[in-house]
Specification:
The complex is a heterodimer of chains A (141) and B (281).
Chain A: H1 3-8, E1 12-18, H2 24-32, E2 41-43, E3 52-56, H3 61-73, E4 79-83, H4 84-89, E5 111-113, H5 120-132
Parallel strand pairs in A: 1-2, 1-3, 3-4, 4-5
Helix pairs in contact in A: 2-5
Chain B: H1 2-27, H2 39-48, H3 61-78, H4 83-103, H5 107-138, H6 143-151, H7 154-158, H8 160-173, H9 201-223, H10 230-250, H11 256-280
Helix pairs in contact in B: 1-3, 1-9, 1-10, 2-9, 3-4, 3-9, 4-5, 5-8, 5-11, 8-9, 8-11, 9-10
Chain lengths: 141, 281
């Protein structure tokens, strides 16, 4: 971890997008920010100010376009985190031809946080690790 | 000259100190987001380490221009120059940011610029009335000469509403003056920090730096009207500003229409009443 990545990890602006789901993951993440381990992470509604795009929920054709537009507006370096089972692999809602995509079909994903709903600490750790590691792409398998 | 340089450095330092104090106090309050004591500094470094993404190459230079104007104005205010020079510097700085916002050619950028223009109308009006009132009360526009009147409490006793109006204008400039004490308060969208909206990356870093310097300029400007020693007056205005920042973190905000109405009443109205009162004396 370089000193710059260390500083970046101490001030992370997260843009949450609920692409179409139960909102459980995004609410869980908002609650997690009140924990001490969420120190330095703030939510933003503006892609220009965001460092991490935190996507939850099932992604359909309509939300996929918006996600691409939002991603393009974020200044580099930037990271994408897929949170929850819906964004990671569609799971239950992914039929053969129902227009539901996984996040890695739409955007380059840096990290996945699996689970329904994922744990608070896992989500915070993932967001911090992605930035500390210099926005490198890594997968949890 | 040494005194001017010391003031120049002191004003640059005081604003991060206010931000740090705010962060330390807020992170101790339950229910607020946790933050590092020097998070504003981390945020600034982070912004400067990011790239700009604009479809127009000139857009990124407008915040740089604004920052240069802020530094020049800071020198004027440290040297206690003519208040009209300081007003011109502040207006030019704001115009650079507004033109930059317009030049992004994004709907949000243009909307932010429109809001910035309505805000510019309020605070430049307040500053112009303050300059006219200062001339009427002290017979000079040069702040270093007017300060002898502030030492004898003449300025504050003759211009109390101008001082209050200027402080309100400073709060509006720092996106702090939007408190809603009513029970039906609406939470404003992210556009409450209007001029930040179209900027990102390095440009946002310059805009933020400009705002830091500008806040220092406003605090120094207000301190000229306070009756104590220059350093104590400056610290008093800084403490008041910190109190406004803390209030801002816990009190709901108004909608934009209400914001502008209240801005005209407090930042525009108070100095105007004071000016009329000076004529009647």
């Amino acid at each position: 971890m370089s000193w710059l990545d260390g500083i970046r990890a101490k001030s992370i602006s997260v843009l949450q997008i609920n692409a179409g789901g139960c909102t459980g993951c995004t609410r869980q993440f908002q609650a997690a920010l009140l924990l001490d381990s969420g120190k330095g992470i703030t939510l933003t509604g503006n892609p220009r100010h965001a460092d991490v795009l935190f996507v939850a929920g099932c992604i359909n054709n309509k939300s996929a376009d918006y996600l691409r537009q939002i991603y393009e507006k974020m200044p580099s370096p930037k990271a994408v985190v897929a949170a929850g089972t819906c964004a990671c692999d569609g799971k239950l809602f992914r039929g053969e031809d129902n227009g539901i995509s996984t996040l890695d079909e739409i955007l380059p994903v840096n990290a996945y946080v699996r689970g329904c709903v994922p744990g608070m600490d896992e989500m915070l750790e993932t967001v911090i690790n992605v930035v500390e590691d210099g926005y490198k792409e890594y997968k949890d398998g | 000259m040494l005194e001017v340089i010391l003031w120049f450095i002191g004003i640059i330092i005081i604003v991060p100190v206010i931000y740090l104090a705010e962060n330390i106090i807020l992170s101790a309050i339950p229910g607020q987001n946790r933050s590092y004591p020097i998070q504003p500094i981390y945020r600034l470094i982070k912004h400067f380490s990011k790239t700009d993404l604009y479809n127009r190459p000139l857009t990124r230079w407008f915040p740089v221009g604004a920052c240069v104007f802020a530094l020049v104005t800071l020198f004027f205010v440290s040297a206690g120059e003519n208040i009209m020079l300081i007003i011109s510097g502040l207006v030019m700085m704001e115009l650079f940011i507004l033109v930059g916002a317009c030049s992004t050619k994004e709907p949000y950028g243009i909307m932010a610029a429109q809001r910035g223009i309505s805000r510019l109308a309020v605070w430049s009006f307040a500053l112009m009335i303050a300059a006219a009132s200062l001339y009427k009360a002290a017979g000079t526009l040069k702040l270093s000469l007017a300060i002898q009147y502030s030492g004898e409490s003449i300025l504050l006793s003759r211009l109390p509403l101008v001082t209050a109006g200027l402080f309100t204008a400073a709060m509006i400039k720092g996106n702090l003056g939007y408190f809603d004490f009513g029970i039906n308060a609406n939470t404003m969208s992210f556009l409450d920090t209007a001029l930040y909206t179209p900027y990102g990356g390095r440009s946002l870093g310059f805009v933020q730096l400009t705002q830091w310097i500008e806040t220092g300029i406003w605090l120094k400007l207000i301190s000229f009207f306070l009756p104590w020693q220059p350093l104590i007056s400056f610290l008093v205005s800084a403490v008041f500003y910190l109190a406004a920042m803390l209030l801002n973190a816990v009190v709901p905000k108004m909608t934009w229409k209400k914001v502008m109405m209240n801005s005209w009443i407090w930042a525009g109205g108070l100095p105007a009443i004071n000016y009329i009162w000076l004529y009647m004396l």
